[in-house]
Amino acid sequence: MWSFAFLLLQGAAPAPPSPTAYEVLRAEHARGADMHTLRAALQRGDTLVQRLAVRAVGRMEREALMGELMPLLQSPAASVRREVLLASAQMRVVGIGWTVLSAPRPEPDASVRAAAYATMGRSAPPTAEWEARIAAGLRDEASAARLGAARGLEVYYRRHRRALVPADSVTRVLERLQEPRGEADSALPLLVALARHAALLASPAGSVPSASWLAALRAHPDPQVRRVAVLVQPTADALRDPSPLVRMEMLRPTVPLSTAQLTAALSDTDDHVRLMAIDRLPRAEGAAALLRPLLQPQRDWRTRAHAVAALARVHADSARPHIVRLARDPVWQARAWAARAAMVARDSVTLRLLARDPNPNVQLEAIVTAEDAVRALGRDHAGLVLAGATFLAKAADGGAMDTRHADAAARALERISRTHPVTWRDPRVALLRYVVRFRDVHPPVSGLWLGQWLRDADPEIQRIAGEALPGWTTTVTPYVPPPFAGEAELRALRGATVEMRIRGKGRMLMALHPDSAPMAVVSFVRLAERGDFAARTLHRVVSNFVVQGGSPGADEYDPATSYFMRDEVGASNRRGTLGISTRGRDTGDGQIYFNLIDNVRLDFDYTVFASVVEGLEVMDRIQEGDVIESVRVVRTASSARRSTGGVR
Hints:
By secondary structure, the protein is α+β, with helices and mostly antiparallel strands.
């Protein structure tokens, strides 16, 4: 009797409590090592916890887990149903969006329908049937759903541009949707324009855009929409557009311009436009005469650098004296440009000088001999070591395999593996791949030496070593980043903003997004409050694309963090957002980038963790070599009192 009563009491025992939002975020960071927490959150969580758990499963990108999310397509919460669709796209599962849209009971929420159409574009195969299914959303009565369909078609045409000819009926609907139907949604016209442009790229010999549609693009108040008009059909009027975003598009190498038009662009008020015009001058008649005034010492270093590089392509002999002068410039970026120009002009004397420049970014541009490359391997600069390894690998492709170089590369790999973090992946991978070439001809770098790399912290290094040792039993061990941030640290970042000052350019105010990218925000704030970003260079500026910086080596390869960051994808790369640069899945190293335009093609692949709310004009003025003067994190007074369980 007592045992029966005990069983009844056991059966009546309350279920374990649902995981908290913080516990779900921590489980997401574990990338599959804590599936118990995620499954419990999917089954018992409230709306917020379920949504976070669905997102976490999607970010694991394991298609086999889709079955665990399917029941939540029946959730009463639209936000959960929408998150399931986004997770399916992240996992590249085909057909989940159509499952929702073709259900017996129509999906009532426009945002869920939008996600269904958008995610089909990422995962659907290239057939007319699937194109029609996505395009059906263009006729939806809700602006949000039409936006999702336009986004879906844009990525669909872009992904399948060699395998699908877009239907004329669909492209005409896109053209008719250029203007929203009375809503204030500024994103719809741009995404519709991008989708139509993607369709044109997918069928260059197919349908011709209508004149009325192009006229609507050119007259649109959004400069990003007008920029798409230039992509579709450049016109001389665009060179006089009030927005540099549009004028820059006219300076692309594929746009034919007269000498008079290029000459006029040399006096443009925007530095990006002006420098792009200089880069185009080698194609112009009388280029040398047009370049001569731009080479004068009173010109700023960027003008002189671009002009010298352009002249080297036009007339190498005339360029050499200017290359020599540029090679003595106090600004190291100018000397790097001198090295590139010297390569074009075959100025070996200047290259020998610059190969021993005190700045490693100059040296790497001037490597022309194996001795230069071996010397580069001894430096503590990831980009320079990578350049040296790359030079030796190309020489080996040509038959120049020297065991002394293999020994130097092996020593360099051992040294940087002891003294530098795992995020020095690029030079380490290049060095190991080079040394592996000698495994059968040089015993010091064969079996036992290669075997040590099977225990490396970086799975990519393990994989390369394992492939070089086919007789060995090897298992690649996943990389494990540092632990997830503490609950109090996350709580303190709710509502925080960041003030970034660019030397000589001004101030930007940015809102952080700890809800969608908690660990990216934490990593950025830790670096900022340690002072790591102060005085660092914005080394990469690609007009109408991105600005990148934050590297201690002022290059692509020297990391800002000592660990690889987990990707926290999902937010869109809209103009003015900030993201984390990576080398592939879960390899963020703390370098940041600014989106100069809506870069929708980066969505689902890069973490977006902040957005500029004041100072977009400062972002637009950033040029190669500009410096981050300071980064200050401003926390709200109430953030310390808020619970992380309230993450939304």
